Amino acid sequence: MIENIKGLTKQLLEEIGEDPSRDGLIKTPDRVAKAWKFFSQGYSANLDDIVNEAIFEEDCSEMIIIRDIEFFSMCEHHMIPFFGRCHVGYLPNKMIIGLSKIPRIVDVFSRRLQIQERLTGQIAKTIEELLDPVGVGVVMEGRHLCMQMRGVEKQNSFATTSAMLGQFRKSAETRAEFLSIISKEKF
Ligand code: ZN
């Protein structure tokens, strides 16, 4: 994979009118290949290994929320980054997951070519499958460089997407509780 991406990057540099043999670019194909290996890690990640032994039975029925999880992903239409914050909440039904595992799940689905809508849904669905909770809510706020860099002149706009499952979908009250917590000022 690395060798092929190196070759493709060299070709791309030539196509855009660059000289891949000049000093500043000589190592660029190698760096780009390594970067893409990282950006695409999510395709080969194994969720079972990641959540491994971090799901517990716990007598907890209150909403659990992890907010402001940073995410970085690549827009599948332009292969340019989009990034921002992700907020995840769920209402447990006996099972809970180690708090640190939720950002790991966000990473698994972010490190691939994505659209923000699908990414949001995949995170919600994964938590639903792992924990069978009463409900799950995921809200993502993302800045899309493909919008910001290509002259659309929307420098300060960001896209908000959400996925609400179970009780978060059925109950306006549950949804409102989640949305109010994630929009509170941070301490
Ligand atoms: Zn795009």
Structure description:
With 187 residues, this protein is α+β, with helices and mostly antiparallel strands. The chain is 41% helix and 26% strand. The chain is built from eight helices and seven strands; from the N terminus they run αααββββαβαβαβαα. It has helices at 2-15, 28-39, 47-51, 101-110, 116-131, 145-148, 167-170, 172-183, and strands spanning 55-57, 64-75, 81-91, 95-97, 113-114, 135-144, 159-166. The strands form two sheets. Strands 5-2-3-6-7 form a five-stranded mixed beta sheet, with helices on both faces. α1 (2-15) packs across α2 and α4 (101-110) crosses α5. The model has no long low-confidence stretch (mean pLDDT 94). It binds zinc ion (ZN). Zinc ion (ZN) binds at residues 75, 77-78, 80, 144, 146. Zinc ion (ZN) is lined by residues 75, 77-78, 80, 144, 146.
What keywords describe this structure?
187 residues, alpha+beta, five-stranded mixed beta sheet, two-stranded antiparallel ribbon, 8 helices, binds zinc ion
